[in-house]
Structures are given as structure tokens and as C-alpha cells.
Amino acid sequence: MSDLLCFDGGSSNLIGTTSKNVLDFDDDSSKKNDSMKDIFSIGKQTLPINRLTALPKTPTDMKVDASLIHEAGSLFLQLEITNNSPLTMTNFQMQFNKNVFGLVPGQLNIDAIPPNKRWGALLPVGLIPPEITTPVSSRLEVAIANSTQQIYFYILEMPISLLMKEQSQLDIANCANLWNSLPNTMSKEYKGSGLQLKLQKLSTFILVASKKVNDKELLMYTIKFLNNIDVMLEITSTSKGYKILAKCIDKQYLSFIFKFLDGLFN
Questions:
Q1: What is the DSSP letter of 100?
Q2: DSSP 5-38
Q3: Which among 78, 84, 116, 224 counts the fewest CB atoms within 10 Å?
Q4: 3-state secondary structure of 112
Q5: Tens-digit pLDDT profile for residues 1-59
Q6: 97-119 in b/e burial notation, b at 16+ Cβ within 10 A?
Q7: Strands 93-96 and 139-145
Q8: Among the CATH numbers 1.10.3470.10, 3.40.50.970, 2.60.40.1150, 2.70.70.10, which is that of 8-161?
Q9: How many CB atoms neighbour CB 224 within 10 A?
């Protein structure tokens, strides 16, 4: 267990520099994979958005509340840990499972949490080269260890909006080439109005073209995820709302972006 969550030998004070799975300390890989599926399996359970959820096998002597926030151009985990045990807890370590966005936690600089006391901080969340073979998901699997020699397992259902990059500079001239190069498409129609106004408030959706086609307004947007995957949208107004065509190099992101758009119309 001493190797759990180790960041390059445990000597670095920088944001996590590894994306090993939380159960990589298990030498039996078949047992490891079965254990992970069992521990992180939640079936069709709906999780609250942006609130850390403890999994059934997680001990209850430590309570952890956490949510992902964007502040001053960076991601942070707003974190609070409560020690519900009669013993002082030390030697805290946290790790995220391999994820397609390359998210890694900063080091938990906690000296100790006495019994029935709380500790809180904004923990930096860094980015490393992502695991491109990992399924696209907004669910972040989290493990925390401490001096009790127990492992605490959680899932964070991340807001999709926080997984997109803010884009201040953009080569609009290249967007036509990008649109033509993206092989996978998906379309969906929505009823409603005011979509353009909603998108104007988002620094992650960049309007790159606007024109009238057969008396219908056509808008084109570009989005970039934290792992530099581009998605482009063509939005056409209809008599009842909008028709949206999305294009991406990886088709997994198409259903992902429509999940976000669904939320704008709900």
C-alpha cells in the first residue's frame, strides 16, 4: 500500500505527474481489473453534478466534500476533509484514475487532521498527456489514502462546461479547413429560442461564421476540449427552434457535446 498514488517516487511537490490507475499497486492485473470494475461500478445510478460521491465500499471514518471550479484561468478542486474517527489522520494522498482529459490532482499538503476536525483548501488540478484510449466520460474516479491504511473511493460527475478550454485567440481563417477535415458527424433538432444569447455568455464557444441561407440564420461555432480535441457546430434556425450539426475527429465527443447542449434547452 505504500506505493499507492505515488508521484514519481513521491518526491515531487508539483502537480501530479503520473496517470497510473488507483489500483496499480495490485501486482495481479486480472484481480486489479476485476476489483476496479467492482469498486467503481454504479450501474445506472444518477450522480449529482459536481459533487463528490462516496462509493459503497468507502469507509465512513473520513468525509470528503469536493467540487471542480474554474478560477483565474485554472482548474481547482474545492476540497474539504472531515476526520470522523477517534484517531489523528496523516499522510494524505490523492489520485485520479486514468482519464481522457489528462486531469491530475495537486499534492495534498496536509500535516494532520485531528479527530472531529475539518481541513479545506483549493487543490490545483493539472493536465498531463491524456490517455487517448480511455473512454470519453465526465465521470472522474478518485482515490484517497491516509495513515489509517484504508483507501477511500469516490466518483465526481464533472460539469462538461469545465472540460472545455477558454479560447481567447483563434485562427478563424483555418476553421473552414478544420470543418472539412473532421470525419464524424451527428445532428439533432431542438425546440426553443435564445440559443445564440446563451452561447455568447460562454467563453468556450467561439462564433466563427454567421450568415443567412434561404432566410434561415446559420451560425458556426468551434469548441476545444482540455485535451485539445476540436468540435465544430453548425447551427441552423428552424420554424420551431434549431437544427445542430456537430463534427469531430472522434465520434465519442459528439454525444458528449450534445449532452451539454441538452442541458441548455432543459
A1: T
A2: T-SGGGT--SS------TTTT-S-HHHHHHHHHH
A3: 116
A4: coil
A5: 233 344 333 323 333 333 334 433 333 434 444 444 554 455 556 678 999 999 988 99
A6: bbbbbbbbbbbbebeebeeeeeb
A7: antiparallel
A8: 2.60.40.1150
A9: 16
